[in-house]
Design goal:
alpha+beta; 27% helix; disordered N terminus
Amino acid sequence: MSPIPRRSLLKAAAVAGAAAQFSWVLGAKDAEAAPGAEAADADPVTLDWLEDGGLGAAPGSTVGVPWPMGAFQEDQTFALTDEDGKDVPVQSWPLAYWPDGSLKWTAHAASSGNGKLTLAAGDPAAPAQRVTVDKHGGTIDVSTGVISVKIGKNGSTLVRSVTRGATEIARNGRLVLIRQPEIEDEDQGQVRTERFDGAIDSVTVEQEGPVRAVVRIDGKHRKGSRSWLPFSIRLYFYAGADSFRMVHTITYDGTQEPGRASGDFIRGLGVRFSVPMRDEAYDRHVRIGGEGTGLLREAVQGITGLRRDPGATVQAAQYAGQKLADPATWDQRVTTRLQYIPHWGDYTLAQLSADGFTLRKRTRKGYGWIAAGGGKRASGFGYVGGASGGLSFGLRDFWEKFPAQLDIRDAHTDTAEVTLWLWSPEAQPMDLRFYHDGMGQDTYAEQLEGLNITYEDYEPEFGTPYGIARTSELLFWANESTPSAEALAEQVTAVRALPQLTAPPKQLIKAKVFGPGLYSEPDRSTAAKAKIEDHLDFLFTYYKDQVEQRRWYGFWDYGDFMHTYDTVRHQWRYDVGGYAWDNSELSPDLWLWYAYLRSGRSDIFRFAEALTRHTGEVDVYHIGQWAGLGTRHGIQHYADSAKQQRISNTTYRRFYYFLTGDERVGDLMAANVDSDETFLVLDPQRKVRTDPYTPDRHALSIGFGTDWSGLVSAWLTEWERKGPKWEKAKARVLSTMAGIAAQPNGFVQGSGLYDLDTGEFATATTPVVSVSHLSAVFGLNELCAELIYLIDMPEFNDVYFDYCRYFNATKTEQAARYGSNFGTLLLFQGHSRLDAYAAVQTGDAALATRAWTKFYSSDGYTESSPWKTEPLSGPVTLVAGAEASWVSSNDTALYGLAAIENLALLGDRMPS
């Protein structure tokens, strides 16, 4: 896109002053909804569980519920009841507000209730056992009414103790990091490692009951004078629960230079607890999760399978995890020889790939290991303890985010040690070095040539992992005794799929959130509608199956999928520049979340959840010079030199945050509020500019498409959340909307000069036509639909409707309106949803017709596309499966969004 000439700046600034005055007049009306908004009712909402089984063994669940504008005010209280009309204790708080101050989203935490629950206005029931938090001593003391947890305020011990009643179940909960300073690329060398411990910098109580408490711990891993690898830990506690949840985030800030074997290579990353062992060795139990709800069920000192039989009742009791009768009552041929039965103190389950785990054990350190089993995919669950109590522990997405590992050590002593390894120390060190030497691409011209052959936008030193992050989730139970097999299976199930309450699609649609009118429930009432629904189902199922077939798993990779297929190799282009990982290109996040919003399907939710966890953490920089920017698609998630707002886009995070109240995703969104500052550091158009341009704090060139949509989504979200900077964010939403509306060609102008201090666009003096096929495909339409519904600014509406009207118009029509046509464009099928939106907003019947014409008969997928897969097997493919060689992720995202939005907007006006 062409920048506004710098020589026009002074004149533009003068015009901008008038625009600023205009914007603040509009600001006086900003609390008003767009015309046509109506005060809505506040009917009760039926909440259901995402998967069958309800809460199960999980500590609790938090759900976000949207409300129509004007339904409830900020001081509204809520009550929760079960299917029998019985009160269920609930803790509620606001997540977002409408511009008129009424509640837009509320969050509700429940720690009981397994059937469908009804949420309505009313007074909440108090829990019989409430969560309490005491911040006054040397620790933060949290009690659920069943367990008590002491959280450190400093030092390296995050969790000082976990007790149930008078019994200490666990203590000394801490973080463990193993650094390997050198990595050997050959078969010779000496491996050296050093251990760092997590050290607390700050502790914050974010919620303190009565149903839910949240404690946040921030710090870095330290050894001696060095501190690195920042962490942010949240601990979640629910009323009456015997368990708690940990959300664990690390941000990589080490150094790994391409071509060098020295650097900060993570060899192991884990969470460790000590577990007191009070029972006799034969009453100490180990449980380790295998496939499904399968378990290894053993005792530290086993009395089954011996040459002498202690008695069937005794053996059955040990296998069940029950306290054994006095050995004096056993067959004395066993009792008198107990000292000769080995004590198995150490166990390790290592999941080094998505397809295999091994399990082994030994008596103690210094003695040999023996194989104890293995399988394909372990649940990531374990237990160690005895008849007087023990600790259950689990790591979510265990095999999906391999290499992972569970260790139990010293269970034969007074204190066992449990480590949940997020990165297994038995795997290869975490190697994040850039994958090639640059191949001579030292200048922008050479880099553009590289882009033209591999689609990779390379630039020296830009392929760095410095600042990327990853979040993991863990669960811990403090058991009063060794749980039964049935209870353990419930705990395993909670680890694998954390129970999640959900609001139904009808409520999401009724509340008019996430782009009012852009999605509706699936409708198969006509053959044409049914066919599109079939196509949508096919595409989602295909990608879900491809994740499995292509093994798109791993600590840094899980959640993402590939961009483009190589039809010759029958393989996705995982090794071809910018055709590899998708990194949110053309908004697959939006496609998946809209697919969930309209259907309520659990499989779509979980797929979108994994994508959100990945793209919001791994594809975005959280510290360093590019904090707030994301990386374009490539062979490594951080490899491409295009660092832009379009990937860090808050629009992609809002769904998961508002549906679940997840605080970590809330952090990610809040961090983007000031990301306009990054335009001083990095010019997104630096390689293709023809005019001289130096970033100027008072005249930054910012595009109205991919740049502005990312910025304004962060500002809108901060405003509606009433975050710490909400007034500044609100002002920028309004001023930039007014600034775009004031441009000679509105959105078609392409970009504007933005003042970081005032948050305003200068008004250009010369009309420019600068339209990109990418401008609207990173959430612009969805975001503008929200803005237009929220804010009464007719001038903004007009320029956006014009953009919608003319993108898919003929070149002659474009030139007649703007003086010149838009040039060669692409992605007409995806843009059909802009036609549909503008058709409904303006009542233009011709646009409605064109929406379906472009959807069915332009580019992208068509009715004549195969809409099926073909089988694959050896020797043409590595793993037997299927392919749809005609599918690409760009087309999938655009078809998915166009289909969903066109059906919702113009489903009753489909061509016959």
